[in-house]
Here is the input.
Amino acid sequence: MSKEWHKSEEFQRCCREFHDACARQPCGKNVDEAKEVLELIKPYIAEKMAGQRIFELKRYEHRGSTYEGVKIAKSPTDQDLEFDVMFVMTGGRDLECHDMELGGFAKLQVKSNAKPRELFQKTKEKDTSYISAMKTKNLFYSHLVGCKLEEFRKDFKGNSITCELMHHGPATQVDVYRDQEKFFSLDLSPLFDLSGETGKEEMYVAKAKKKGSNDIQWLRSYSLDEKRKFDGMDRDNGCRKMVLRTMKAFVKSRSELSWLTSQHLKTALFRTIDAQQSWKQEEFSQRFMDTLGTLEECLDKRTMPSYFQPGTDLFENYKEETMEATNRRSCRLSNNGPLMTKLLSSSISKWKPANSVSQIV
Here is the structure.
């Protein structure tokens, strides 16, 4: 619930200044041109992968903060452009989900009547019919190496476009250069679509069980549901996406909150949207604090039900002491006006173009 100080002129001004300094959105000609270049790279990757006869592309799906309008620029001179694209692999309907955990992770098993696929043979866990997320991720990366992206060359509006393949956690990162200068990054993730004839979406992506972990498992993905929710979210000229970008920047500025992921912050926003009807621009500071309050309530209860699958707890794979330390150090910020104003003002004064506030994307 909003407090009187949440809507004070001083606090509203402080929140606006923090957003404008630390949570600006990449925009303009560079973003549009990067999307055009991405469309040149995608068919190249699909063709090269198909030629190796293991990974067959069913379709690409776009997801992530750049497409959702909640990406944060790294600095006034570095938009830190990044596109998250899912490589939806053929064969998903030959798999079935088993042993769904509270955290949303599950095992994928080859159906008994499934069509034989070399991909399944190469990625099965030993002596089982389960498909290993780690083996799939590693095999996917090795086949991207086989695509020889370093040989990709395109002329785009008089500029030379080249690529470099990187290893970046569960996703595979492709750095794209324009005239030898970094232009943007493409995070490419293998995904199985198990959706059946009913039309109900059921997708699984190889994902680390928690931030920074090397334990890669299959996670039920709701990224397309999220994308649909973000589409037209602020058609009423509201401040919902502005609030999420501000939440990302604020969380990154606080060491006790830095373990939180984009998924946690999106969930807090979605639940606050359900609770608050009005999201006018002049109510930005109030809605920001309402969303922070929603997050604090989840931390108090040590549980955060997934917005799209309430039976899944997004805090399941995090230690009790982590949340306890977060609660102890955050001091219920939504109720502490002087401290909150001080923290936002301090972040603004420390912010420099070289500083990064965009690691939660």
